[in-house]
Amino acid sequence: MTDKQNYKSHLLEAVQVLILMENQPDYKIARMCDVAPSTILNIRHGKHIPSVVIAERIYETLGGQSLEDFDLLN
Fold first, then answer.
1. What is the model's pTM?
2. Are 24 and 61 spatial neighbours (Cβ–Cβ below 8 Å)?
3. How far is CA 45 from CA 13, 30, 39, 62, 74, in A?
């Protein structure tokens, strides 16, 4: 395993949890977050790592919090 594979994205994990907790079809979540439905589907299944901007938008939309409130160290 390379060093890059050892790092976990806490933001990506939080976004995946928020998508799962939303309990709506991907196209509805995508419309709320202003992204493509395939983006939501791929994040849900762990096939895609979105840019930080997209991850931040999804986190803020679904979580109702600003990213500055997110604890990146835990």
1. 0.79
2. no
3. 11, 15, 10, 17, 23
CB 34 within 8 A of CB 5: no
Chain centre distance of CA 7: 16
d(CA 58, CA 1): 30
Q: What is the pLDDT along the chain (74 residues), one digit of tens a residue?
A: 455 555 678 888 999 999 999 989 999 999 999 999 999 999 998 887 888 899 999 999 999 888 776 666 55
At 6, the amino acid letter reads N
Of 11, 17, 19, nearest in space to 35 by CA = 19
Tokens of 38: 């395939």
